[in-house]
Design goal:
The protein has nine helices and eleven strands. By secondary structure, it is of the alpha+beta class. It folds into three domains: 139 residues, GAF domain (Beta-Lactamase); 71 residues, Helix Hairpins (Orthogonal Bundle); 145 residues, Histidine kinase-like ATPase, C-terminal domain (Heat Shock Protein 90, 2-Layer Sandwich). Strand 1 and strand 2 form a beta hairpin.
Length: 370
């Protein structure tokens, strides 16, 4: 009889180990072959866990990760629990737990081997999450490299186009003005005025192209940044009034001077304010904040308009990308801003969600080493 009992215990122990190995294999298979998003993949893993325990009829697996909970079943008020932390890059970001839930009769206690299994499973899940996040970081880095490469190529093409267009546009303007001086009647003079205005508009686009291509020579000066922002707001005063949008400027507590190109910096302010105006509705406000952060100045422009969707947010600094209707925007405004800020040794980024407005941050060194 003792021999038969030992054999039964051995068979039972082997069966339990087979269940554990089968569970680990299933999880490894999910990690290796599943193309689902991380959230769905984690739910698949959690659903597979209870059958590895000695009493799966009581078992409910639970994974809590970054504040989100994944469960394999319904919880009960009465339960016995074992848990193990889920650690990613030496930082605890949640835990993996196995609950034995019951109504009246408590289930048998957890086995020591199940505690070891839980630890192994927590490590496996940590590996799944870390690999997924690593892939996401690599994809983001790859997109940034691709965008930088596109910007470099477009910059070279744009510089050539701008130079080629400048001469004929200058000729059109010059001869149109000459003909206007000799116009015989009012209608002819009016028609020539349209030609001149169109040529002037085209020249402004060329100027933006040259800004984007960093072909415009910088004139760096020690200037009051506060005064430049105030002047830009004053020039746009009528535009704000017509749009029924209120600008709110919070200047720095102390005078803020920086070594910058005042014309280019003003263009940055103009473009960001006009974009904020286009995104805003009547009755809303736009908040402009200027402050010193260490050896940098920080310009923050916040609107409370329609916001920017994620897929758009990743492309807004690309040249020729515009969300406006055809003919309403050249798609150069923010790419010009990006070029100017980069050429000053600074950085620009945006925080926004659809329907929640947008905030643009411009960091520029007070004394750039260019």
């Amino acid at each position: 009889m003792p021999s038969q009992r030992v054999d039964k215990d051995l068979v039972h122990a082997l069966q339990e180990r087979i269940k554990e190995l089968s569970c680990l294999y299933e999880i490894s298979n999910i990690a290796a072959t599943s193309l689902s998003p991380l959230e769905e993949k984690l739910q698949e893993v959690v659903n597979a866990l209870p059958k590895a325990w000695q009493h799966p009829e009581y078992a409910v697996a639970e994974l809590v990760f970054d504040g989100r909970s994944y469960r394999s079943g319904t919880m009960a008020k009465q339960r016995a629990t074992q848990r193990h932390p889920v650690t990613i890059r030496q930082r605890e970001r949640g835990h993996l737990a196995m609950h034995y839930v019951y109504d009246q009769t408590p289930p048998p206690p957890f086995l020591h081997e199940e505690e070891l299994l839980l630890r192994t499973l927590a490590q496996e899940i940590s590996g799944i999450i870390e690999r997924d996040e690593q892939r996401e970081r690599e994809a983001l880095l790859r997109r940034k490299f691709e965008q930088a490469d596109r910007l470099t190529i477009l910059g070279e093409i744009t510089a050539g186009i701008a130079h080629e267009l400048n001469t004929p546009l200058g000729n059109i303007l010059g001869f149109a003005q000459l003909i206007q001086d000799r116009a015989a009647d009012a209608q002819m003079e009016h028609d020539i005025e349209k030609i001149i205005n169109s040529a002037m508009h085209s020249r402004e686009i060329v100027k933006k192209l040259m800004f984007f291509a960093c072909e415009m020579p910088q004139q760096m000066e020690q200037v009051s940044v506060t005064e430049l922002v105030e002047e830009a707001l004053q020039l746009l005063r009528v535009t704000f009034k017509n749009a029924a949008v209120r600008p709110v400027f919070h200047p720095p507590a102390a005078p803020l001077d920086a070594q910058i190109d005042p014309i280019q910096f003003t263009q940055v302010v103009f473009n960001l304010l006009i974009n904020a105006l286009h995104a805003s509705k009547a009755g809303q406000k736009i908040v402009i904040e200027l402050e010193k952060e260490g050896e940098e100045l920080l310009l923050r422009i916040q609107d409370f308009g329609h916001g920017i969707q994620r897929e758009v947010r990743e492309r807004i600094f690309e040249p020729f990308f515009s969300t406006k209707a055809p003919g309403e925007g050249s798609g150069l405004g923010l790419s010009v801003v990006h070029g100017i800020v980069k050429n000053h040794g600074g950085r620009i980024y945006v925080e926004s969600e659809a329907g929640e407005g947008a905030t643009f941050y411009v960091h520029l060194p007070l004394n750039p080493k260019l």
